[in-house]
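Appendix C: a fully annotated inverse folding record. The material below is reproduced so that readers can follow the format used throughout the book. The structure is listed first as tokens, followed by the designed sequence.
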């Protein structure tokens, strides 16, 4: 699984009367992104993506901006009236993983949350300054040391449990049952494919389809469906929620994020 299945963490707090909303914690993923890479026979190379492999796309920016608008409607303009109309440091804390696509997602989201900045107060009174844009700090730590947002941060015990899963009867059965399919995809893609990495092909196919890029004739509707289903099965193994069920691995993959919620 890709090393950056990461999330953004938003903490919002203020002081109110008893029996009223006093804290909101929101966790979300980054917006739409380009594939992390591609397979040898794919005609769509890195230059097909505006910012390159793994980066947030324009669609992803728009998605995050829309989410920011939704948060604003609910917690600023809506019935809750929880936050001030414009940014106040004591009301908002946001943390992101140290990856371009999540940091830019946070920026786009905050632009949607706070589109009504006041010149001379929230930002410089300059004609060259982007209209109503208020700079808001986004906190992060190095990805290798991020035990909150990086679900695949270094963990020897998680590695041990993953090895147990890959040696399990159920894992080997699924791998053997789909060997012919893996061989077929390997031949067509030019990449050695197995149960561990089938999600890579599916991720590329999904991302390209979202952006209306042509797909090779060998990815039929049935192949597309099987890529998707096997990728889901792989994820279930990785997170310990398929046989053999390993709740400890699920907790380790969740990291310390749950302690903050």
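Designed amino acids, in order:
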């Amino acid at each position: 699984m890709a090393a950056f299945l990461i999330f953004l963490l938003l903490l919002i707090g203020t002081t109110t009367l008893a029996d009223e909303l006093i804290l909101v914690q929101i966790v979300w993923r980054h917006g739409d992104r380009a594939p992390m890479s591609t397979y040898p026979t794919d005609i769509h190379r890195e230059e097909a993506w505006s910012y390159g492999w793994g980066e947030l796309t324009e669609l992803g920016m728009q998605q995050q901006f829309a989410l920011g608008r939704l948060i604003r409607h609910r917690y600023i303009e809506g019935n809750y009236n929880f936050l001030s109309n414009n940014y106040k440091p004591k009301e908002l804390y946001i943390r992101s993983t140290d990856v371009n696509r999540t940091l830019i997602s946070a920026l786009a989201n905050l632009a949607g949350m706070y589109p009504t900045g006041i010149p001379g107060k929230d930002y410089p009174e300059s004609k060259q300054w982007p209209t109503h844009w208020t700079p808001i700090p986004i906190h992060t730590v190095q990805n290798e040391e991020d035990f909150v947002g990086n679900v695949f941060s270094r963990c020897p015990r998680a590695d041990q449990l993953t090895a147990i899963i890959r040696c399990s009867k159920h894992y080997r059965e699924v791998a053997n049952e789909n060997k012919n399919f893996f061989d077929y995809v390997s031949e067509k893609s030019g990449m050695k494919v197995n149960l561990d990495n089938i999600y890579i092909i599916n991720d590329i196919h999904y991302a390209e389809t979202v952006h209306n890029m042509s797909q090779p004739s060998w990815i039929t509707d049935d192949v597309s469906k099987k890529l998707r289903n096997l990728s889901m099965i792989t994820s279930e193994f990785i997170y310990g929620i398929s046989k053999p069920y390993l709740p400890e691995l699920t907790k380790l993959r969740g990291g310390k994020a749950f302690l903050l919620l």
